[in-house]
Specification:
It is an enzyme of class 1 (oxidoreductase). By secondary structure, the protein is an alpha/beta fold. It is 40% helix and 20% strand. The chain is built from 16 helices and 19 strands.
């Protein structure tokens, strides 16, 4: 497809059905292919230069700690500065490339990624510990972001045709969305392809150049994306790949006077640090830096007595334990009205105990958490939970040569308990009892976060009230609180969940552009 001629309407990339033997075998073949390429050494990409460094980030398989995924060169401040200068130079020519041509690079990249879908997913299975469905959904979302943002840039470029300004005699007035400049993109490890791709392509298609600093636990899948963009002919210097320490490289670039924006997805603590550092005006800085931040959540599901209780229990378990609870949208809390509390809790415990923990490459329902730090933190929270609630399932380490933890459920947890208030980012679910549905919503709202939530009920008046009063960026009725689709569920949250950036929505590219009004006297 050529953007200069015709663009079809956006359609979400379909998920792969792994119950079909041919799809399962295709993924197994892709895993075998990726395994044959493990242990490679990857360079930095600074413009057209490929830079190997003595210092390296070693990426390991969290499901098999003895397996090295790759060794990635590590940038320091001097290399980060070199990358900044290259990006600044590249911006001067890239910003002049017409929107349709910029979009065309994305369309080509989406098609190539689609052709190699299982290969990208297989690498995530090994590097991040996702099972087949989770990795496949991640790759599909990456393709969706590329396709959606390409179309969005085309739409913005036609604003004066589709939404012309009010005409007055003797003047021609136009509004143009121009790029900001050089941006720092800091994606997370939990959606190491989708969010990395989405943040980067949104910035690039808008005409900006990027310094991409991937998560240190998942740098190889990020490199695979950068290599793909190079393959489709994206000009050198538009995306510069510079893995490195957050304290050294991340802080340096955040405070750099030439940094125009920082796009970040990760923890509340690091997001607030970036916001604080970026808020200080550096010597020579002539703009207010723009921050796009998605910082996590303490999401929950509310169930009243009129709900389909089996569906609610299934949604609670899927939301809590999908990808081991390592999603900012994960439903780590549930509030259930007392008249059906025991029944729902019993169903949740039963479903949780049925989950099998194992190696992601064998497509186990529950895999490892990402690294030693997460492993230790989650196990510590489980010990805290044992003092704050009634342990119903899990409660400790699981077997395997990786960072495996049992899916864990605590019941009878007070709304102010630590495991109800603090983001654990692991397979830990806290359940609380409410006297009625209104108290359940109040308990749900009692958090510093506000990303996703779900309300289960068959009462339309209550649903209307929940839609109005549950304070979160993404609220779902009678379905799980994870699984946002690009173009369908624009994603972003309130309060300490970030800047409500609404990734995958019609407002997103506005964050990477600035509107310029030109008025000409006829």
């Amino acid at each position: 497809m050529n953007t200069l001629t015709n663009v079809t309407p956006f359609v979400n990339e379909p998920f792969t059905d792994f119950s079909k033997e041919e799809n399962k075998k295709a993924m197994e073949a892709a895993i075998a292919k990726v395994k044959a390429e493990l242990g490679r050494v990857y360079p930095l990409h600074i413009g057209s230069k490929k830079v190997m460094t003595e210092a390296q980030i070693v990426s390991i398989n969290p499901g098999d700690k003895d397996e090295v995924i790759g060794r990635v060169s590590k940038a320091d401040q001097a290399l980060a500065e070199e990358a900044m200068q290259v990006a600044l130079q590249a911006f001067e020519s890239w910003k002049r490339v017409p929107a349709a041509e910029r979009a065309d690079y994305l369309f080509k990249a989406a098609e190539l990624m689609r052709q190699r879908k299982h290969e990208f997913s297989a690498l995530m299975i090994l590097e991040s510990g996702k099972n087949y469905a989770e990795a496949d959904a991640d790759t599909a979302e990456a393709i969706d972001f590329i396709e959606f943002y390409a179309r969005e840039m085309l739409r913005l470029s036609r604003t004066n045709e589709t939404q012309p300004l009010t005409k007055i005699a003797g003047e021609t007035n136009n509004l143009t969305y121009i790029p900001l400049g050089v941006g720092v993109v800091i994606p997370p490890w939990n959606f190491p392809l989708a969010i990395c791709v989405g943040m980067t392509t949104a910035a690039v298609v808008s005409g900006n150049t990027v310094l991409l600093k991937p998560a240190s636990t998942t740098p190889v899948i990020a490199h695979k994306f950068v290599a793909l963009m190079e393959e489709v002919g994206l000009p050198a210097g538009v995306i510069n790949y510079i893995p490195g320490s957050g304290a050294e490289v991340g802080d340096y670039l955040t405070t750099h006077p030439k940094t125009r924006f920082v796009s970040f997805t990760g923890s509340k603590e690091i997001g607030l640090r970036i916001n604080r550092l970026a808020g200080e005006t550096a010597l020579g800085q002539i703009w207010i830096k723009r921050i796009v931040a998605e910082m996590g959540g303490k999401d929950g599901i509310v169930v009243d007595e009129t709900a389909d209780l089996q569906a609610a229990a299934q949604a609670i378990v899927a939301s809590a334990f999908g990808f081991q609870g390592q999603k900012c949208s994960a439903g780590s809390r549930a509030f259930i009205v007392e008249s059906v509390y025991d029944e729902v809790v019993e169903k949740v415990a039963e479903l949780t105990k049925a989950l099998q923990v194992g190696l992601p490459e064998t497509n186990a329902p529950v895999g490892p958490v990402i690294d030693q730090g997460s492993y230790d933190k989650i196990l510590n929270y489980i010990e805290i939970g044992k003092t704050e609630g009634k342990l119903l399932a899990g409660g400790g380490k699981a077997e395997g040569n990786g960072y495996y933890i049992e899916p864990t459920v605590f019941a009878d947890v007070d709304g102010k308990a630590r495991i109800m208030q603090e983001e654990i980012f692991g397979p830990v679910l806290a359940i609380g009892k409410a006297k009625d549905w209104k108290e359940a919503i109040a308990l749900y709202n009692d958090t510093e976060f506000g990303l996703t939530g779900a309300f289960f009920s068959s009462d339309e008046e209550r649903i209307e009230e929940a839609l109005e009063t549950m304070h979160c960026g993404n609220l779902y009725i009678n379905r799980k609180c994870t699984g946002a689709l690009v173009g369908v569920h624009p994603f972003g949250g309130f309060n300490m969940s970030g800047t409500d950036s609404k990734a995958g929505g019609y407002d997103y590219l506005l964050l990477f552009t600035q509107a310029k009004l030109t008025s000409r006297k006829n």
